[in-house]
Design a protein that fits this description.
275 residues; six-stranded mixed β-sheet
Length: 275
């Protein structure tokens, strides 16, 4: 490529600036930044460099911003806020409004980059866990929070652990992961008095779709058994797929890794279907 290592580092800093500007919702500043940075990517194999993660966020945010009508966003007024706490899948719903129980609700981002549910186990000392608690501790007490985690566990953690014979089979690995997640949710609800809406892991990637489907069905069953009034499952993931459950529906495809914002009415319906 045409960039030196030092230049790649500078580019990574600018890509991260774009990510941070998006996270705080200062959307009006993004188009000029993107117009400046986007031409630098073209013709470069940045996904094969050590700034591939920064570039991936930049590309995702670029697509999401193209789908956000800015005049509408600037004019949007909302009656309340729901926080969207999740891995990179939290970016798609963020800074849009839905109707929740008859009130216009702004979905405000609370990104936790790269977090697996597995990281939340008590003995873990890995940085994403610390970042998770930094993020959730900054969310006001008593908030409504949409939780979007589990897809990275399905893509990386669980399958590797089964291959290394840490678990007897896939379902055992998934259940251990879910138990860790639910313990963390219970602690959060007790300490911060959140109402937690549990968003399913998204079945976007072809190779891990079957794992995601099993994860979601087992998480749904575990939450039903828990029957906690403030930790609620959002039941819609099957509607993101074709009828045979083999593929993601075309209208929900964005970049091959994340879901298209057009899926948001499914989230809205699932939220409003809860008693």
């Amino acid at each position: 490529g045409k960039f030196t290592d030092e230049e790649l580092d500078v580019l990574a800093l600018f890509f991260t600036l774009v990510k941070n500007v998006f996270i705080i919702g200062a959307l009006v500043h993004l188009p000029p930044l993107m117009a400046l940075l986007d031409p630098l990517r073209h013709g470069e194999e940045l996904h094969q460099t050590n700034i591939r993660n920064e570039q991936a966020y930049f590309c995702n945010i670029t697509q999401l911003v193209e789908e956000l009508p800015f005049a509408k966003v600037a004019a949007q007024t909302s009656d309340k806020v729901m926080y969207v706490c999740g891995d990179s899948h939290s970016l798609t719903p963020s800074w849009r409004t839905i109707l929740h129980k008859g009130r216009r609700t702004l979905l405000r981002n609370a990104l936790v980059t790269g977090l697996k549910c597995w990281h939340l186990r008590p003995e873990s000392r890995f940085y994403p866990k610390r970042n998770f608690y930094n993020v959730v501790n900054a969310i006001p007490e008593g908030s409504d929070v949409l939780m979007i985690f589990g897809e990275i566990d399905c893509r990386e953690g669980i399958l590797f652990a089964v291959e290394r014979a840490i678990y007897a089979n896939l379902r055992e690995g998934i259940q251990v992961t879910i138990d860790i997640y639910i313990e963390a949710l219970l602690e959060l609800e007790a300490r911060k008095h959140f109402t937690l809406y549990i968003h399913p892991a998204l079945p976007v990637l072809d190779p891990t779709r079957n794992t995601v489907k099993i994860f979601n069905s087992m998480l749904q069953a575990s939450l039903a058994k828990l029957n906690h009034p403030k930790i609620r499952w959002l039941d819609f993931y099957e509607r993101t797929m074709t009828e045979d459950g083999r593929l993601l529906r075309d209208e929900y495809k964005l970049d091959g890794t994340h879901i298209h914002p057009q899926y948001l009415p499914l989230v809205e319906e699932a939220l409003n279907a809860l008693p």
